[in-house]
Amino acid sequence: MDPSSKLTYWLESAPLWKYELYSMDWDLKEELRDCLVAAAPYGGPIALLRNPWRKEKAASVRPVLDIYSASGMPLASLLWKSGPVVSLGWSAEEELLCVQEDGVVLVYGLHGDFRRHFSMGNEVLQNRVLDARIFHTEFGSGVAILTGAHRFTLSANVGDLKLRRMPEVPGLQSAPSCWTTLCQDRVAHILLAVGPDLYLLDHATCSTVTPPGLAPGVSSFLQMAVSFTYRHLALFTDTGYIWMGTASLKEKLCEFNCNIRAPPKQMVWCSRPRSKERAVVVAWEKRLMVVGDAPESIQFVLDEDSYLVPELDGVRIFSRSTHEFLHEVPVASEEIFKIASMAPGALLLEAQKEYEKESQKADEYLREIQELGQLTQAVQQCIEAAGHEHRPDMQKSLLRAASFGKCFLDRFPPDGFVRMCQDLRVLNAIRDFHIGIPLTYSQYKQLTIQVLLDRLVLRRLYPLAIQICEYLRLPEVQGVSRILAHWACYKVQQKDVSDEDVARAINQKLGDTPGVSYSDIAARAYGCGRTELAIKLLEYEPRSGEQVPLLLKMKRSKLALSKAIESGDTDLVFTVLLHLKNELNRGDFFMTLRNQPMALSLYRQFCKHQELETLKDLYNQDDNHQELGSFHIRASYAAEERIEGRVAALQTAADAFYKAKNEFAAKATEDQMRLLRLQRRLEDELGGQFLDLSLHDTVTTLILGGHNKRAEQLARDFRIPDKRLCWLKLTALADLEDWEELEKFSKSKKSPIGYLPFVEICMKQHNKYEAKKYASRVGPEQKVKALLLVGDVAQAADVAIERRNEAELSLVLSHCTGATDGATADKIQRARAQAQKK
Known about the structure:
Layout: E1 7-11, E2 14-23, E3 36-39, E4 46-50, E5 64-68, E6 74-79, E7 85-90, E8 96-100, E9 104-108, E10 114-119, H1 122-127, E11 129-137, E12 140-147, E13 152-155, E14 164-165, E15 178-184, E16 187-194, E17 197-201, E18 206-209, E19 221-226, E20 232-237, E21 241-246, E22 252-257, E23 266-269, E24 280-283, E25 287-291, E26 298-301, E27 307-311, E28 314-318, E29 322-328, H2 331-337, H3 344-356, H4 361-371, H5 375-387, H6 392-406, H7 415-431, H8 441-447, H9 449-458, H10 462-472, H11 480-491, H12 499-510, H13 518-527, H14 531-538, H15 544-553, H16 557-567, H17 570-583, H18 586-594, H19 597-610, H20 612-622, H21 625-638, H22 643-659, H23 663-686, H24 695-704, H25 708-717, H26 722-736, H27 739-748, H28 756-764, H29 768-775, H30 780-790, H31 793-803, H32 806-815, H33 822-837
Antiparallel strand pairs: 1-2, 2-29, 3-4, 4-5, 5-6, 7-8, 8-9, 9-10, 11-12, 12-13, 13-14, 15-16, 16-17, 17-18, 19-20, 20-21, 21-22, 23-24, 24-25, 25-26, 27-28, 28-29
Helix pairs in contact: 2-3, 2-5, 3-4, 3-5, 3-6, 5-6, 5-7, 6-7, 10-11, 11-12, 11-13, 12-14, 13-14, 15-16, 16-17, 17-19, 19-20, 20-21, 21-22, 22-23, 24-25, 24-26, 26-27, 26-28, 28-29, 28-30, 29-30, 30-31, 31-32, 31-33, 32-33
Pfam families: Vps16_C, Vps16_N
Subcellular location: Late endosome membrane; Lysosome membrane
Domain Vps16 N-terminal: 18-419
């Protein structure tokens, strides 16, 4: 099978390819067996903790934690200064989790930067950690711990730490021979082996499980492995048998006798998505074995100590010198490259090669494909096979063949071809030795382009990430903008560059790029202890709502207040004011407000509803006697119930008005004080409710109570005009329907408001009889209107004719209706005609 750089092996009827990804360039001073090793899936980084805590090593030698790319390029190296480490593992976000013997888990970034730490609980601290596993679920990355008391504790998601203590295994006196984590029904379980028995621990129970169809004679399980998707389980027994089945332990898939009873160093699943068959890769010190359903196996001799990394579609195998990938050959690749293949894709590839040689065989191959009607299938096979190729020259050869075949098809959709070319260009870029992310096409599609970009950003490969975004034409918010924001957050951590230079460089690069938040970058700068840089970056943030909260967090409250006022957002200003109030002493707070008139005005509005005493203090400090007087007037009614307290508050208000040189307000306040005292006296003498009535209402209440003399005296005391008093009396007597008293009042003296209001009030009370009494007394100018109000249209017409007033004649004519007023209307018309003749 071609291509020549790949070694082909057969397991059952399905071929496997094993080819070199990289020639490792790392300078390992120790063997892999002497290190704690952790390799992330999806072509992720490799972590080695050199010189772990072993008895034969000198205690004075400090361990070294090294992080490499998959190609062996060094990413970070640091001396380990913390406690003994039991296990290493990578999270789904490519953070390195280091589980210490005391149960503390230290989290490091890809470049050796310390992120955080957390503890697995007091019980783990007391009993120490014997072993640990890092596992992945749909909720995130989890940690499972085996303590010295032979109890298990786990957390299914280290991002949202919730510790769960698993049930105790009855009679367990020593560490299990092997154990692993299973994920079933969205819940993490522990499967452990104790002698010939298997125990499954869930959140509440410990149950014994038996693998179906297990060969007899097993006295111990030496190794167990869960598939990449947690659906299948493999068990290695002390009899040399490997049992493979479902992770639920309800179904057996197969069993293989490897004739080796020594416990393997590693055992992992090799996923085979094409054939749906299962395969397990088992590694000893000098031997590697691939076993499946068939009785035969594939065996390799290991010249160097190697480490296995299970992947979605295969297994990565790395050693001191090489990094290889073992996977099942895809269907399209097998069809094209198998010996003497007559598959459409194989014929199309040959046709294209002959075409380049200018040979007539190209036409013969092409005609053969077309006669079978398989040209579309041939093009699709070549495109698919190109995606699974690791070597760019083979990719190009297959894509040329696909392009050649497309020329002879009328309606072949180009999208798949174009998309494959784009994907391969991205994959070839990240597979480069200096980048070191050897993703396969299947892994790339599973991972998604967004996650790949995140991983490039984690590696600080910003130019490459931006080039990929521009090449794939991703939306700016999802692509270039997001990457530039990450670059800026990294830039602010470079403390050897001045704040001015960093801020200028970030602004020149980012400008007004949509989707980039300068406030987020400033927050990162503040988190790094660069407050002045954060302030400079906030100057480029166009949204005040994003500037102000961070300025408050940085204790630059006065600057935050200025920014909030500039924004015109009153809610934002209130937020800053309340923060300032809690931060500053009272005097400094008030001085700050005096320098910001808008803020002072808003704070006064707030105090009017929430803090009246503070409002009074503000007026006192500003010597604002006018507002202080108004404040005491409101306070006299809002806070004081006793008349004495209310009068005292009004007196304070009057004094304030005099200081403000507002004599009108002062006099009005004094009049109100007199009225309050008088109302209290009236209540004491007459009973009833007088307090808090207005002056007019007080007079009206006295009249309604028949206390006319007191009402008149009150009017004289407070200088109520005669016209207003007359109106008050008229309205009150009409409401009482005291028509006799009203008539006496009308005859007592000449009415200052005339008699038309008497007519109107009587008609409002539907008393035409009384209204007619006053209609005759109405003056000539208003008599027509009065007569019309009482319904005497004829007399109104006579008066209008006598006065020769055209407006009055028109008014009377408008009131003439029907036959009853016909004579009156004719009379008015004749009068008009005579007036026109004259």
